[in-house]
Amino acid sequence: MQKVKGKLVLLDGSTYTGDLYAARPAVGEVVFTTGMSGYQETLTDPSYCGQIVVMTYPLVGNYGTNPLFNQGPRCFFQGYVVSDLCDFPVNWRSEGALLEFLEKENIPVLTGVDTRAITRKLRNYGVLKGVLVPAEMSDAEVRELLATPDQHDQVRVVSTKEKYTLGEGGFHVAVMDYGIKRNILQYLVSFGCHLTVYPAYTSAEDVLRDNPDGIFLSNGPGDPKDLPEIIENIRKFMGTRPLFGICLGHQLLALANGYDTYKMKFGHRGINHPVRDLVEHKICISSQNHGYAVDEKSLDDRVVISNVSLNDNTIEGLIYKEVPAFTVQYHPEACPGPGGHEYLFQRFVHMMGGRR
Question: Helix 342-355 crosses helix 182-190 at what angle (to 10 degrees)?
Answer without folding.
Answer: 60
